[in-house]
Amino acid sequence: METVKKIFGSDHAKNYDRKAAAANWLDPAIVFGLTYRFVLPGDTLLDIGIGTGLSSELFHKAGLRIYGIDFSPEMLSCCKSKQMTEELKEHDLSAVPYPYDPDTMDHAVCTGVTHLFEDLRPIFREMSRILKPDGTFSLVVADCDAAGSEIIRVTSPHPPRGKKIAIHCYSEAHMQKLFETHHFEQVCCLSFRASGIAGQPGRYKAYVVQKKAGHERN
User: Fold this and answer.
1) Pick the residue with more confidence: 7 or 84?
2) CB 143 within 8 A of CB 203
3) Least confident of 148-157, 175-184, 205-214
4) Fewest CB atoms within 10 A around its CB: which of 41, 128, 139, 159?
5) Which candidate, 183, 185, 189, places its Cα nearest to that of 215?
6) What are the tens digits of pLDDT across the range 63-80?
C-alpha cells in the first residue's frame, strides 16, 4: 500500500479526472445505471475511496446526499472543490472501524479501489455495519476465473516510475461467499471489459448487493 499511497499525490489528484476521461473510464456510469432503480432523492450515499468524486457525481445529480472517505488529502481537496458533498473524511480504508455510526447510510459505492486490497472482508464488515437494512452496496472488482482470488503485477504508469503494483482479482464464487458471510444479497451484476491499470485490457464485474434486514451485526 505504501507504493499506492506515493502514487496518489498532488499531481496525480489534479490530473485524475482528465486521465479518467481520456481512458474512457466507465465504472461510475455502470454503477449508477445498475443502482439507479434503488435510490431516491434525499437518500444518503457513502463513497468508499471517493477520490475526486467521479463515482458520486451522477448520484449527486439525482438528488442524493453524498458522503466520502479517502486516505488522500489531495484527492479529497479536489473532490471538495466540486461542492457536491455533505461531508468528506480522511481515513485509510484498511483501518477499521470507519468513522461512521451503525445503520446510518442508505447506499454505498466503491469503484477504482478494490483491486488494491488483498482482503475485502474488512470493507464488507464495515458496509454491513454502516448501511441501513435493505441498503445497497455497489462496487466494481477485477474479475478472474480462479476459485478464489489471484494477483497480477503491473508497472505503475504514474510516479514513482518502474514500481510494480499488485492488482487483486476476485472470482464470482469468491464474491458470492463474501456476500453471504456479511449478510448481503446480490440483486444484479454486469461483466464488462475495459482498459485497466497501465492501460492493460482487463475483465471486470460490477455488483449491486443489498443488506439483508434483521441480521445480527458481525
Assistant:
1) 84
2) yes
3) 148-157
4) 41
5) 183
6) 999 999 999 999 999 999
Residue that has been written with the C-alpha cell 438528488 in this structure: 63
Residue-wise DSSP of the chain: -HHHHHHSSHHHHHHHHHHHHHTT--HHHHHHHHHGGG--TT-EEEEET-TTSTTTHHHHHTTPEEEEEES-HHHHHHHHTT--EEEEEE--TTSSS-SS-TT-EEEEEE-S-GGG-S--HHHHHHHHHHEEEEEEEEEEEEE-SSSSEEEEEEE-SSSSTT-EEEEEEE-HHHHHHHHHHTTEEEEEEEEEEEE-GGG-EEEEEEEEEEEPTTPPP-
> Is the full-model pTM beyond 0.70?
yes
Find cell 458471510 and name the residue: 181
pLDDT average, residue stretch 30-44? 98
> What pLDDT score was predicted for residue 218?
46
Through-space distance between the first and last CA atoms of the chain, rounded to whole angstroms: 26
Cell 505504501: give the residue: 2
Residue 215 has pLDDT above 70, yes or no: no
Roughly what angle, to the nearest 10 degrees, separates helices 172-181 and 121-130? 40
d(CA 83, CA 120): 30
CA neighbours within 13 Å on the CB side: how many for 113? 25
